[in-house]
Amino acid sequence: MNSQRLERREIRYPLHLPVLLRTPLADVQTRSENISLSGILLSSARSIPEGLWVEVAVGVGHMPDTGILLKARGRIVRVRSLDKGDFMIAIQLERSFELPMASPPPQSRAQSAPAVFA
Q: What's the pTM value of the predicted model, to 2 decimals?
């Protein structure tokens, strides 16, 4: 048994949010267990093969606009079966989560732009 403790590169936040995984095989509804800048740990009723690249969309229902999702792309690096039949799925992200950009209508953008040069 290895007595060395592996240090995590990023802080993990225990967030339990709905997550949609888009895989080449199917879309899978899961739930986050924890999230960091470089990865996410999910609980799922379905197993997903290790090594598979997936798109991750995390629901953020408590924000003012419930349509906002955190999005990322990542690779399944670990799948562990639990006693109760569910699975824990670890995903290493290609890069940190992003918020989809919602651009304002062109008219309101022009009206709100500050006059830098006069």
A: 0.73
In sequence order, the 6+-apart residues with CB closer than 8 A to the CB of 73 are: 53, 54, 55, 56, 93, 94, 95
Walk along the chain (118 residues) and give the pLDDT tens digit of each residue: 444 444 557 799 999 999 999 999 899 999 999 999 899 999 999 999 999 999 999 986 655 555 667 899 999 999 999 988 899 999 999 998 887 665 444 554 444 444 443 3
- Please compute Rg for the chain using Cα positions: 18
